[in-house]
């Protein structure tokens, strides 16, 4: 994959971080201790493998006495990201992950969405937006979804709550095609999909989306979202607890075979509804 200008800019951020750290006579481990991350993370920032959160960039400035340099660079680079600031880090890590495990409580995840479904989602939250804006957002989402079509795609395992199959997004024909697409991804072995049925009742992540990501040469992370905000968490204890929650959800879900049958049945229900309207 060719290096993007955005990646080159983050590499410059890392190069400057290393230069300033060495000029201050600090090792990665010592700087990490002072800004409350591991020395390994400082190394990943310097290599542009990961991006620091804003508060970490601010603490780096304070520790290295760089007059706000890293905060300014962070803000400039984040403003140029294609995705919303709170999701930009997660979107970047998706491309680096070897395994992605996701729980979707109400909406089909972006990596599995069709253009029509994504368009309906964006129109629902931006009813007065220009067509150009909506189409740009849809294109960005479809660009992300290409990840699952690459030869080097990550293992992708998602648990959909049955709500995501039943709540109509767009008209019935849109929903039928969306569910057909999920079924096709399963049959093509590009995704493992389970459905957590209504009958499963209470579960550890009631109403909360969760994305666990694992990497070849970096610790795992968990990404969660709320209203216009997101959290990218990599504290080992937090990630371990999230993994335990995911295991409980996965255990309560239908088997992959039964899930596929339910997805295809729901698609047929929407198809029949579309044919009568």
General description of the model:
This protein has 277 residues and is an alpha/beta fold. The chain has two domains: 5-79, lambda repressor-like DNA-binding domains (434 Repressor (Amino-terminal Domain)), CATH 1.10.260.40; 85-275, Endonuclease, Chain A (2-Layer Sandwich). The protein has helices at residues 5-23, 28-35, 39-46, 54-64, 69-79, 85-96, 115-125, 131-145, 162-166, 172-187, 236-252, 256-275, and strands spanning 99-104, 155-161, 192-196, 210-214, 221-226, 229-233.
Explain the layout of strands and helices.
Blueprint (H helix, E strand, L loop, with lengths): L4 H19 L4 H8 L3 H8 L7 H11 L4 H11 L5 H12 L2 E6 L10 H11 L5 H15 L9 E7 H5 L5 H16 L4 E5 L13 E5 L6 E6 L2 E5 L2 H17 L3 H20 L2
Parallel strand pairs: 1-2, 2-3
Antiparallel strand pairs: 1-4, 4-5, 5-6
Helix pairs in contact: 1-3, 1-5, 2-3, 4-5, 7-8, 10-12
CATH class of the largest domain, anyone?
Answer: Alpha Beta
Silhouette: elongated
| CATH fold assignment of the largest domain | Endonuclease, Chain A
Contiguous low-pLDDT stretches (5 residues minimum) are: none
Number of helices: 12
Number of strands: 6
Q: What spatial order of strands do you see in the largest sheet?
A: 3-2-1-4-5-6
The domain count comes to 2
Instruction: Report strand %.
Output: 5-15%
Distance between the termini: 46 Å
Quaternary state of this entry equals: single chain
On the 0 to 100 scale, the average pLDDT is 89
**Helical/strand content category:** alpha/beta
Report the biggest beta sheet as strand number plus sense, adding barrel if it closes.
6 strands, mixed
**CATH architecture type of the largest domain:** 2-Layer Sandwich
**Percent of residues in helical segments?**
55-70%
Q: What is the rounded Rg?
A: 21 Å
Order of helices and strands: HHHHHHEHHEHHEEEEHH
């Amino acid at each position: 994959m060719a290096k993007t200008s955005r990646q080159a800019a983050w590499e410059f951020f890392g190069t400057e971080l290393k230069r300033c750290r060495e000029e201050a006579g600090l090792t990665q481990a010592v700087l990490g201790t002072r800004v409350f991350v591991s020395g390994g993370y400082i190394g990943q920032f310097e290599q542009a493998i990961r991006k620091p959160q804003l508060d970490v960039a601010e603490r780096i400035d304070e520790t290295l006495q760089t007059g706000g340099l890293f905060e300014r660079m962070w803000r400039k680079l984040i403003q140029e990201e294609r995705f919303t600031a709170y999701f930009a880090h997660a979107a970047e890590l998706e491309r680096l992950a070897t395994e992605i495990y996701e729980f979707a409580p109400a909406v089909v995840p972006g990596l599995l969405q069709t253009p029509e479904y994504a368009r309906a989602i964006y129109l629902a939250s931006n009813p007065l937006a220009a067509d150009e804006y909506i189409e740009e957002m849809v294109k960005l989402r479809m660009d992300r979804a290409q990840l699952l079509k690459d030869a080097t795609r990550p293992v992708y395992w998602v648990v959909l709550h049955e709500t995501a199959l039943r709540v109509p997004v767009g008209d019935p024909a849109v929903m039928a095609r969306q569910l057909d697409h999920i079924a096709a991804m399963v049959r093509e072995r590009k995704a493992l999909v389970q459905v957590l049925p209504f009958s499963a009742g209470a579960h550890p992540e009631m109403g909360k989306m969760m994305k666990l990501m694992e990497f070849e040469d970096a610790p795992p992370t968990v990404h969660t979202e709320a209203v216009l905000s997101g959290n990218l968490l990599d504290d080992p204890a937090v990630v371990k607890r999230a993994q335990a929650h995911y295991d409980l959800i996965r255990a309560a879900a239908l088997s992959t075979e039964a899930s596929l049958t339910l997805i295809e049945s729901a698609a047929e229900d929407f198809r029949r509804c579309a044919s009568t309207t």
